[in-house]
Amino acid sequence: MLGTAVIVFREVLEASLIVAIVLGASRGIPKRGQWVAGGILIGVAGAGVVAAFAGELAQSLSGNGQAIFNAIILSLAVAMLAWHNIWMQRHGKEMAAHVTAIGNGVIQGDRPVLALAAIVAAAVMREGSELVLFLWAVAASGATSLPMTAGAAVGLGGGIAVGGLLYRGLLRIPLRYFFRATAWLVLLLAAGLAAQAAAFLNQAGLLPALGTGLWDTSSILSQHSIFGQLLHILVGYTARPSGIQVLFYVTTLASILGLMKWIPSRHNQVVGSY
Amino acid sequence: MVRPPFIVLLLGVLTAAAAAAAEPGPALISITQRQFAPQELQLPAGVKVRLLVKNTDALPAEFESYDLSREVIVPPHGSVTVFIGPLAPGKYQFFNDFNPDTKGWIVVTKP
C-alpha cells in the first residue's frame, strides 16, 4: 500500500504543482478557474487515450515514438508558459489593480486563458497516462484491491495537498511582488520543461548529448529525495545534466526573458506614437 | 491525395538518420519477472549506444534513470529504443518507476 501511495504521489505531484503555479500566475484573470478546470478534464481524458495507445505509441518511429511525443507536448507547454509571461508583462499592472478592486474594470486584450488550459492539460495528460498504466500494472499483478485503492487515494490526496500548499503559499506573497514572483516561477518552470524536452529528443537520438554528466550533484541533493524531486519539477533541477539539457535550459530562460522585455516595450512604442 | 504533415516526415527522416548513425548494434536490457537482466550492463566509454529495453512480462514497466535523464514506458510484451551516451566512465543507475525494487546499473569503462 505504501509503495503504491508513494508512486501515485510522485506522479500526481508534478501535475499538481504545475496547476498551482498556473492558478497563482493567472490570479485575477476572469474565468481562469473554469479554463484551468477544463484543462484538467481534457488532460484526464487525454491521459486515458495515451495510456490506451501506449503500446502503439512506444513501437512507433522505430521505438522512439513516446520520447518524441513527450518532447512535443513539453515544447507546447513551454511555448504557452512563455506566451503567458509575455502577456503578463504587458498587463501585470492592470492585473494587480484588478486583484485589489475585484470586478472593477475589464482586462483588455487576448487573455491567455487558452494557454492556461493547454499548460494544465499537457501536465495532467503526461503524468496521468503514467498513473493509469501504473495502476493497471498494480491491479493486474494481483495486489489485493483494498490496500491498492487506499494507497492510490492517499497518494492522490497527498499530491493534490502539496499543490494546494504551494498555491496558498503563493497567495501570501504581497501583491506588489506577487506577479513578479509568479513570473519567475513560470520562467524557471518553462526552462526546466525545455530541458526535459531536450533530454527526450536526445533519448530518441535526434539531438546530440553535448557531453553527459557535465557535473554531478547527486551526493549533495539526490533526485530520489523529496526535495530533489520538488526542485526537479519546479526549476528543472537535474543532478547529472547533459550539455544539451543545460543549453536548452539557458536558451529558453534567456529567450523568454528577452521576449518579456522586448515585446511589451515595442507594443508601448506603437501605442505611444498615436 | 492525403500528404502526411511535414513534421511527421521530418521526424521520420531524423529518426532513421539517427538510427543509422548509431555506431554499434543495440545493447539489450530485458525486464523479466519484474527484474532487469542484466542487472549490470557493461558499456564502453565515449560511444553513443542504442539500448533496446524489452519487456517480457504481461505488465507495463517504466524504464527510468535520473543519472541519465531517461524515462520511457515499456509496454507489456513490447520493446522501446533508448539512446544513451557517449558516457564518461562511471556507474549510472536505472530503475523501474512502477516497481522501485527493480534496479540496475550501467557500468561504463574505458574501451
How many beta-strand runs of chain B? 9
Regions of chain A with pLDDT < 50 over 5+ consecutive residues?
270-274
- Distance between the amino and carboxyl termini of chain A: 66 Å
Number of domains of chain B: 1
Number of domains of chain A: 1
Determine Rg of chain A (CA atoms, Å): 20 Å
Identify the CATH homologous superfamily of chain B. Cupredoxins -  blue copper proteins
Roughly what fraction of the amino acids of chain A lie in strands? under 5%
**For this entry, what is the oligomeric state of its chains?**
heterodimer
CATH class of chain B: Mainly Beta
Please tally the helical runs of chain A, counting DSSP H or I stretches of 4 or more residues. Answer: 9
Q: Can you give the mean pLDDT of chain A?
A: 89
Shape of chain A: globular
* Low confidence ranges of chain B: none
Average pLDDT rating of chain B:
85
**Tell me about the biggest sheet of chain B?**
5 strands, mixed
Question: How many distinct beta strands of chain A?
Answer: 0
Using the 3D structure, state the CATH architecture of chain B.
Sandwich
Q: What fraction, in percent, of the residue positions of chain A are helical? A: over 70%
Secondary-structure element string of chain A: HHHHHHHHH
